[in-house]
Every structure is written in C-alpha cells, then in structure tokens.
Amino acid sequence: MAKIKHNNFLDTVNEVFTDAKQEGVLHLYAEGDSFTGRTIEVRNRSLFHFGTTGYLGLEQDKRLKEAAVDAIRKYGTQFPLSKSYISNPLYRKLEEKVGEMYGHPIIITKNSTLGHIGVIPSAVKDQDAIILDHQVHWSVQSAAKILKNRSVPIDMIRHNDLNMLEDKIKRYSDQRKKIWYMADGIYSMYGDFAPISDLMSLSQKYPQLNFYFDDVHGMSWIGKNGTGYVLSELGELSENVLLFGTLSKTFGASGAVLVCSNKKMYGEIKTFGGPLTFSAQLEPASIAAATASAEIHLSPEIYVLQQELRERVSYFNELLQPTDLPMIDENISPVFYIGTGMPKTGYNFVNRLMQEGFYVNLGIFPAVPVKNTGVRITISRHNQKEEIKGLVEAMEYHFPKALEDTHTHSERVFQAFKLEPKQEKTFLKPKMTADLKVQLEDSIVKIDKQLWDSLLGKYGVFDWDGLKFLEESFRGNSQMEHNWEFRYLIIYDQEQKPILATFMTVGLWKDDILAAVGASQIEEERRNDPYYLTSKVLSLGSLFTEGHHLYVNNEHPQKKEALNVLIGTLEKLEHTLGAKMIVLRDFNDDKDLHAYFQGQGFIRVQMPDSCAIELNKEENLETYISRLSSRNRKHLRKEILRIENLLDIQIVQDANLVQLEQIAELYSNVHQNNLGLNTFSFPTKLFANMWVHPNWEFITISPKDEPEKMIGVMLCYKNIHKTYIPAFVGMDYKYLQQFHIYRQLLFQTIKRAIELNYNHIALGLTAGFEKRKLGATVYSTYAYIQTADNYTLELMGILESS
C-alpha cells in the first residue's frame, strides 16, 4: 500500500470538525448582552457553563475589569510598538508582580503559542535533542518542529511512559549535550498530571536531562501564589527546568509567562526570542487586568479561592463515584473527561446535555483518538452545588440514552478506554442479532467457493483460489512478519441471502506504512532492530491485495445492522488477536459508508489513485490503441513500440529455478527502492508458490542481445471472472531509462489481457500518470483507520517534518 497524500492530516481534521459542526457541537456562537461565567447563552437558551478554563472565575472579577477599563482610558486600546524598542508603561509593574509570584526571572509573552515558538528555538541548542510526550500540547509540538531545520533530533514517547523515556535518554546520552523532555503539567483533555517527582528522580540519574513544562492548565487553582501544579510539586525551580504558565485561562487576563532560573539562558531568550522580539506586545487592558490578578495571587485571598474551587471539584468527584459513568482519570484537577467512544455517541450526548440546560465541551480528534471521543467537563467557582448535582443526574440519565440512540453499548466505551466498569451492570448490553446469521471462518476452504466468487471474486487476487494461495504462502514461515491470520466473514439474512462479506488479515505492519517518504528515515533504525516501530494491524483485505474488499448489498433493509455486526466483529478480533490498529481499505467516495465509518470512530485518509482498464468485447490490440488520444498514441510509438523490438518478451507460466531467483531479485529491487510502499518483504516461498499455481504467470523482458538476463517482470494473476491483475513488478534499475522498463511492462500487460480475451485489467494503486497514458481510468481511493491512541500518527508527523 502506497503512502498517503501529504495533506491528509489537515483534510482528516477538516472532515471530523465539519461533521461535529453539522451535529451542532463545535464552532458555536455564544449569545446575549452580558456574560457572568455561571451561565452561557447558546441558541437562545441559557445553559449552565461547564466548559470554561477560567477555573477560579477571575475573568469576571470586578477589580480586573476596572483595571482594564482604566488602562484603555489612559493608554488606548493598544500600544503599537515592539517591546524590543519600548514597553507600555504598565509592563514594568506586571513583570515585577509576576516575578514576585514565582521568585524567579520571568518573561511575559503575547500568548503561550507564540511564547513556545520564541523560547524553544532559543533554549534548545544544535547539540541538544528533544523528546516529546505524545500528548504534550500541539503548540509545543509545533514549536519543537522548527528545530528540525537545524538537525536537532526530535523524538516522542507514549504518554507518561517513563520506561520509554529512559530508553530514549540512553539512546541520546552519548550523542547530545542536553536532552529536553517536553510535557504538560496538567493535560487539557483528561485532566491528568505529569509525574513530576518521578521525572526529577530521572534527572538525578541522567544529568543531561532538562525539562520544558507547559503548565497553563495547572495555573492559579493550585500552588503557592497560584503558580501552578508543576511548581507545587517541584517546590523550587532548578536550572534544568523551563516553566510556562499563563495569564489567561484561570489567571483571568491575557498573555503567558516563562519562568527561568538559569540566568544565562534567561538573558539569551529575553534579548532575542524570535516572535518575542517582533510580535506586538500585550494591549494595555490585558496588562492592567493581569497586574490586578497578580496582586490577588500575591495575597492570602488566592488560597481562599483555591479552597472554594477544591470544594466544588471534590463534590463533583463525590457525586460521580457511585455512578458507572466512564470517567477517564480520577484526580484533583478541575478537568474531567467522560468517555463516549464513538463520535456519533459524543454528538448525541452533548446535544442531550445542552437540551437539559448544561454546556460541556466535546473532546474529539485530533485532541484525542477518534474512538476516544468524549465529553470534557470543567468545574469552576462559577458552578454552584445545585447545578453540579443536576449535571451528574442528567449524565446518568442521558448516557445510556445516547448509547441506545447510536446503536452502541457501554462495554464498547469501557473497552475503548481500557477501563473496568465500577459496577457489574452495564448501561446497555449489545443487541442480539438473532435475525442475522453470521459466518466467521479462519480459512477460505470453509467457505463455499461458488458463493465467495459471486460476492468478492470479480476484480482482485482475492477470489477463492487466490485466497487459498495466500493462506498457503503466508502461513508456516520462519519470520513473524510473513505469517498472517486470516478471517472470513459473511452475514446472511433469515432467508440465507448474503448482506455483507469480506475477508480480513492480521499481520505485522511498519508504523510508517502510511507516512510520507521522509518518515522512512527510521529504516536506519531497523538495521539494528528490524521490528522497530512496527505493530500488529487488523485490515480488511491484506497487504498483498488491492481492490474492493467489502461486499455490501446496498439495497438490503438490514444493511445497517450488518455493518454494525462487521464493526463488532472487527473490535472483537482486534482484542483477541492483539492488533493495535484497524484499517479498512480500499473505498471510493461513498458518502453513506463515509458517514457510517466516521461515526464509528474511523478517520479517512486518501490513498494513491487506483487504476483500471475496461476492455471491449472482441477487443484487439489495434482497436485498443485506436481508442487512445493522439498524444498518448505518440507516446506509445516513441517510448514503447520503438523499444519493443529490442526486447525478448516472454509469458512464463512454468519458471525454472534460475528464473525464480531472478524474479525474486527484481521484485526486491523495487521493494527496497520504493519506501512510499514501505512494507515488509514477502516470504521467499511466495514466488515458488506462484510457479506451481495455474492462475499465476510472469511477463518477463530481457534485452535481445542478452536473452538470459531478465531486466523486468510483471507478476500477473488470472482471476476467475476474467480480470487480469498485474499484482507486482520487478525491475533492474540500471536499465530503467534505456528500455523504459515500467512502461513496457504496463503495455505488455494490456497486450496479454487482450490476447486472453479478458474483460477487465485491475492495475491497482500508484503510478496513475503512467497508467493513464496507456488508457487507464483513474479513481480516487480511501482508507479508514482506527487506532488505540494517536501516538503513531503524531510520531509520524514529527518525523515527516524533517
């Protein structure tokens, strides 16, 4: 399978957000003439507000408001000069107050995103390395990627995995001066913590280890002077720690703050920090409001405010305890996450809560994996006990209703988040499908041959005979990547009519199979560890096959129910066979299936275009060529027919051992040179099995003056429904330009299919430009991916940025 297209991530996020917008849970507008913080008006309804990040409610404090208004009257709406030249008169007092809060030198930034872009490239030197927690905020990841331009290695660990972190530290310890670990203090979705104490112990063991903590969600509601979670755990800020806090969110104003106890580093960042130097400074109103807030933080009042919030958080925790709502992390932060699993369940749940009078946030991809969609609830001092209790009661009532509405059940939700229910009962048991018959087998020989070929045998190598061949080739091999599990699923109605059919494989995939070619730098790592960044994947179809792997009777009234059974089967197989990802491929732009798969927690990525040729009845080579455009006929004459006479072209159906060795070597050349199709090699017995299989044949080309020297081969399968499938190609790259090997093999494939009087040529994915010139029709194709977490996707994003 070839690499996905470069803009897929943005396209995918756009699709997910568009879906959520259409469901009325994203990109909303608050309404009303005023805002108190306790309620928020949406669609002409006043809702209790459980979505704020102003946990202490200081954004509504009268002192901050009056300070902001007074500053505008005195200094205007902005002070339009770079701080490098001159700062607003109010800045000095703000810097003094915030510095007093932390007891260390500080730098005020316009916001945390610009702050990270300014600080990280200044603090991290070319001799250093960066390791990211995969859930660290996007703004930190984005700033870190800038360092790729200076060849600073950037790596990533799974969330809070200290064993993995230590392994990465060991890897870089002999190569790099400093190793920076970058993490959030409090993570914005689940509200969980960075293990600060354990991290500092690790730094005692490895003196090169430095930390960059983004603690914007830990600010104000905890710690001395409200300086946040990280500093409350550290006690004292050591020189190997850079700490980011915020003057917005809980602080009630605007801007961000960097705290740095290393005087030399502080001086370098302060003097020149990219956007810290060139960006506009904070507006007078923001500076004055932040100064007023800092004065509160420096007073005993901050501890009263913290206690009031703590009481509300404790009360919410207390009410949640006896419920079986899937709360993802139980802690003392004001951020809570209730899992819904599938996006469509999340949409339903959020809309139900809004109808009950409660505003909450939807947690969705890319902030969380798609199948880890849920509701993020934040508690603030604005919330009163009666509405906190009301929210819990509403969630208890509506959660099972949302599951029922979206044809799912709580068992799936708990499984998606790897949680155990707190009680024996579940809200909704899976619905029985007594009116559907499900046949699930582990070998094609257990499936009726005529039935299978009528459903899925039309266009691919996966007719009944082809699958029997694949089972024989991908079982009993010495290397794990060459052994696949096969499963065959047919779903029938009560009258034994098939509604849905497919086959699935579980095998070891390289994690960068769907990444841009640049990510395949990790092949260097695989020289020492061949299974570096690999995972077991459950896939519709297989890595050997291309085409429509899923048969669905779209006219059947139980189509949706059959699809639900398919998804349930995939989830069970994923669990029992130990897969880490589910991949559904290859689909066209089917809007109904797209909406269904997306609602079931899959993200869509566009694959390389698929190509096919339909041959007319009684087609001959002359009539086929006449159908080409004049431009393409000219291309054919110049680059293919002119050279054809220089080649010895054979159709080999009974290859000898020498030929098989040549074929395997030529295929290996293409496999090794095309990291866009970054898969493991195939087992050696595959080519021997092709040799003895009546449906396989090889189109070989050799120079006429060296007929024993094979320089190109097309491995072709003859499908039962008269489809000719050039499945794989092999080439000697030394002769590629001289003989236009690939173009010649494509032409010989078409020529052979016409000679056999076949109806269809399935040319497969990639090389659409070359295939189109020879008359192929090109189709867009898509895959749907569901992962246990976003680690692999985010890691590939880091690697691709190089």
UniProtKB/TrEMBL annotation:
Gene Ontology molecular-function annotations: transaminase activity
Gene3D superfamilies: Aspartate Aminotransferase, domain 1 (3.90.1150.10), Type I PLP-dependent aspartate aminotransferase-like (Major domain) (3.40.640.10)
Keywords: Aminotransferase, Transferase
Pfam families: Aminotran_1_2
Domain of life: Bacteria
Record bears the keyword Transferase: yes
Keyword Nucleotide-binding appears in the UniProt entry: no
Listed PANTHER family: CLASS II AMINOTRANSFERASE/8-AMINO-7-OXONONANOATE SYNTHASE (PTHR13693)
The protein's name in its UniProt record: Aminotransferase class I/II-fold pyridoxal phosphate-dependent enzyme
Source organism: Aequorivita iocasae
